[in-house]
Write a structure and sequence with these properties.
270 residues; 3 domains; 8% strand; alpha/beta
């Protein structure tokens, strides 16, 4: 993708952000201003981090593109209305945002260009990746954290995920939850979230314990969690997050024999 196209993309993101309803006119103007600032920055000749390194003339490569997202992180809003979340994400003082907000009635608010970095993940880790925001799309589902997700909401989510996977080639295993990447801090999306339904559509892995005849004596559950991607520095929190995703009917942070079979089957997929 050439520089002209990149700058045009960012400018279009700003223009699109200014064409919404007047309720968020101020936020939309701010979006447009920031998008233009990023476009100007991209047009600037690289300055180098050391004057010695820039002693020779700058030579611009023609081979580059926008950095594409490689993960999707799913959240629940922990608020009671979609409007509350939209307001939270348009106030500068909150310092939090997401690319998409999906309301209970299925309405999808695309709040940020997919190529830009939202502030949705916070401190987290998945495998060796520690800056989750820089490589992910954040999706917030309007849900207070203690209720099931509506059919309309999940249907809209599936459509968004289908588009993201197609547009950016996001691997099946890289559709995960906030609790997965931040097990000591987060519990979203809550235990009612239909991870198995998503996996059946190609968004996230699921297990099939029917294929597990016997777990090897040397199987190390904590090591398996780490190989999948969980931060196991707090192994109890990692187990809790794992069960919130895969064993939702049991919140006790202790692995049963059945849990170990699930974990073993998933571990073999990585």
């Amino acid at each position: 993708m050439c520089m002209k196209k990149i700058v045009t993309l960012l400018l279009m993101a700003g223009i699109a952000g200014s064409c919404s309803n007047s309720k968020y006119a101020g936020s939309n103007r701010s979006y447009k201003k920031q998008a233009k600032a990023f476009a100007r920055e991209l047009k600037t000749q690289p300055a180098g981090i050391d004057s010695v390194l820039m002693a020779s003339p700058w030579v611009g490569t023609t081979n580059f593109g926008m950095r594409k997202p490689n993960f999707v992180i799913i959240h629940h809003t922990a608020q009671n209305a979609c409007d509350s979340t939209l307001r939270t994400f348009t106030l500068p003082r909150t310092q939090v945002s997401a690319h998409y907000v999906i309301c209970k009635d299925g309405t999808v608010h695309h709040m940020l260009n997919d190529y830009l970095r939202a502030w949705h993940a916070g401190a987290g880790r998945w495998g060796s990746l520690t800056d989750i925001n820089s490589s992910s799309i954040g999706i917030e589902l309007d849900n207070n954290g203690f209720e099931p997700f509506s059919e309309a909401q999940i249907n809209s989510l599936l459509q968004v995920l289908k588009s993201l996977k197609k547009n950016y080639g996001i691997p099946t295993a890289n559709f995960i939850g906030h609790a997965d990447i931040a097990p000591t801090r987060k519990v979203d999306p809550n235990r009612y979230f239909p991870w198995q339904q998503l996996a059946q559509k190609g968004f996230g892995n699921w297990y099939d314990t029917a294929t597990v005849k016997m777990i090897p004596d040397h199987f190390n559950a904590v090591q398996a969690l780490r190989i999948i991607g969980y931060d196991t520095r707090d192994s109890v929190a990692a187990i809790r997050a794992f069960k919130l995703h895969f064993v939702q009917q049991d919140s006790i942070p202790k692995l049963t024999d059945a849990d170990r079979k699930i974990l073993y089957d998933l571990y073999k997929r990585y």
